Amino acid sequence: MLPQTMWLKKSVEEQLQTLKANTGITPNVAARIAFFRSVESGFVFDKTTDYKLSGSLKLDKFTWLGKTQQVTELLLKQRYPELLDKELQMAWAAHVEDGSSDIRNLAKVTTLAKYF
After folding, report:
1. In this structure, which CATH number among 1.10.1220.160, 3.40.50.450, 1.10.3210.10, 3.30.70.100 belongs to the domain 5-113?
2. pLDDT band at residue 5, thresholds of 50, 70 and 90?
3. Are 37 and 102 in contact (CB under 8 A)?
4. Model-level pTM?
């Protein structure tokens, strides 16, 4: 399972903050959207890469994941059964980074809604 406190790369946090400024969508909700977009796109985390979590926005697992917590953890465990808890957090963060590249430049919530 994912650790109780989680964070992202600083660059991803900045992207999510910019998205919040443009759309009003909070970083935790944007991270959920980005995670699932990444999973849908088929992205696979490579644990051999040195993935550094350098952000300062450390939130508890429930705040980051909300009602998607169980499904997020199950997807990660299914996709990466060999990973330990901290490695699962890096996989989650990598998926958020991958998915945020699709949504980071949106200017309006209505534009985001077209993705669904």
Report:
1. 1.10.1220.160
2. very high
3. yes
4. 0.90
